[in-house]
Amino acid sequence: MSLKHPHLTIVKANAEQTKITNRNTFVEWGKGLSLDQYLERETILANLDFTRDKFIVWVLVPKENPNTLDIVCSCETFRRTAFVTISPGVIEEYLCYSIASVFTPPSNRNNGYASTMLLLLSNKFKEQGASFSFLYSDVGPVFYKRLGWQVYSHTEIRLDVSKPIEYEGNVTLTPIKYNDIKHIAEKDCGLLKLEMRYTGRRALAVVPSAPCIEWMIMRTKYFAKACDIDEPTEWGAVVSSRDDSLDFVLWSHEFNEKQLLILRLRGSNRQVTRALLRQAQMEALKHNLDKVIIWNANIADVLNSDEFEIVAREHSLPSLAWYHDNNGDIEWLLNEKYAWC
Known about the structure:
Helix 1 packs across helix 2. The chain has two domains: 8-151 and 333-339, Gcn5-related N-acetyltransferase (GNAT) (Aminopeptidase), CATH 3.40.630.30; 155-312, Aminopeptidase (3-Layer(aba) Sandwich). The chain has helices at residues 15-29, 35-45, 113-127, 142-145, 181-195, 210-226, 270-286; strands at residues 8-12, 55-62, 73-85, 92-103, 132-137, 150-151, 155-160, 173-175, 203-206, 236-239, 248-254, 259-266, 291-295, 309-312, 317-322, 331-332. The two termini are 27 Å apart. The longest helix has 17 residues, at 210-226. Strands 1, 2, 3, 4, 5, 6, 9, 15 and 16 form a nine-stranded mixed sheet that branches. A seven-stranded mixed sheet has the order 8-10-11-12-13-7-14, sandwiched between helices. It is an alpha+beta fold and 341 residues long. Strand 10 and strand 11 (248-254) form a beta hairpin. The radius of gyration is 21 Å and the shape is globular. It holds the Pfam family GNAT_LYC1-like.
């Protein structure tokens, strides 16, 4: 696809340009925060293990004036790692990027600027050897699809906290504290890498690393502090076990939407999964949240029909552009909330 605006280019934003982009995007993604709080949060989020040396703010600007503060449009990228299986039984770690906060100021819209920026960005990714990039569309499936990003499953299961999930058997759960996340995530990644050897098909999974989980949780922590809400102390639950098995749930709290977001869920059987979901409901109740939200989890068979609602999301549509080879037919495993940015 040819570029509509050949006089424009993308550059890494300097400090002043970054401030401008954050001020611009506040109206879109600052719900519940003041402008100063939003700017502070963005600075904090850009300096965590997940983002430090891996996060870039990109701006579309004239080639002859790359340092201008009159920014045409902007976005953010995160350098990440994925487990990928192309050949049966072979798992490799591939470079990928996630794209976030694609924003065009209102005065610049409907001119094809975002399309130009994203096409230039795709070229950058390919030059750097990335196997794919992904994003979460808030503007439906069509815009990004014509630029190369294919929409994947965007269903979510909603659990009403007023309808408690019951479970049978003796399932002992231990709360996951913030300092437990690294150990849980590392074990989860190790198991995932082994399990993917037996998928029998082309598949990828964005690595559910501790830093990306902690980045999500920091959003909750900051919002709680800024809005004078009791900060949560538990970020999930793990099933107590004497063997090498691992069953757990990790979550974060979206206070302004009154819902608990399941970041990552691993349940080996019906009763264990139900116990983990019940614990999530209890956490939501503790913080006066109305619902528990689970993205693209294959758990409908462990729930009774009156216990959940399943819907196709109209926002945050996971979309992926595959660069590694000419065969874009690849399954996205673990298409869960932890990968969002």
